[in-house]
Amino acid sequence: MRDMQRPVTARRIIDVLCVPEGEKAGAWKSERKDDHVFHAGFVPSMDGPEFVAAVDGWAPGNPIRLLPDGGEWPYSFALAADAEWAMIEYCEGDIGVRVYSTASAYRQALTDYEKGPPWS
């Protein structure tokens, strides 16, 4: 049962699973970009569906929601945290959390994700 007092948020995912800004996590580095901050991390011992369940990505009214499939479910996909202007990308255990500086940059990222990868 989900804890309504302490829902999972993008900030909590960053704090628990990602390295601090400017540090490396394997081949990933958390860093500032033009319109967002990228936080790199890793989800230990969970596959994609388990990760979505752990963050309550399927629960109505939860702050994090699974996005329409712009990835290759269940190996790669993204979740959105609208209140935080954050997109959480999952790819076979690696995660990247992008926290956007503006609402318009966040909306554009969601639109781009829904279009699918540029090579499709």
Question: Which descriptors would you attach to this protein?
Answer:
3 helices; 8 strands; 6-stranded antiparallel sheet; 120 residues; alpha+beta; two-stranded antiparallel sheet
Q: What does it look like?
A:
The chain has 120 residues and is an alpha+beta fold. The chain has one domain (25-115). Helix content is 23%, strand content 28%. The strands form two sheets. The protein has a six-stranded antiparallel sheet. A two-stranded antiparallel ribbon has the order 1-2. A hairpin with a 2-residue loop joins strand 7 and strand 8. The longest helix is centred in the C-terminal third of the chain and has 13 residues, at 103-115. The model has no long low-confidence stretch (mean pLDDT 86).
Q: In whole angstroms, how far apart are the ends?
A: 38 Å
Characterize the main sheet.
6 strands, antiparallel
Helix content: 10-25%
Gyration radius from CA atoms, angstroms: 14 Å
Shape: globular
Q: Return the string of H and E elements.
A: HEEEEHEEEEH
Biggest sheet, strands in spatial order? 3-4-8-7-6-5
**Taking all residues together, what is the mean pLDDT?**
86
By secondary-structure content and strand pairing, the structural class works out as alpha+beta
Structural domain count: 1
Q: What share of the residues does DSSP label as strand, in percent?
A: 25-35%
How many strands appear in the DSSP assignment?
Answer: 8
Q: Extract low-pLDDT stretches.
A: none
Helix run count: 3
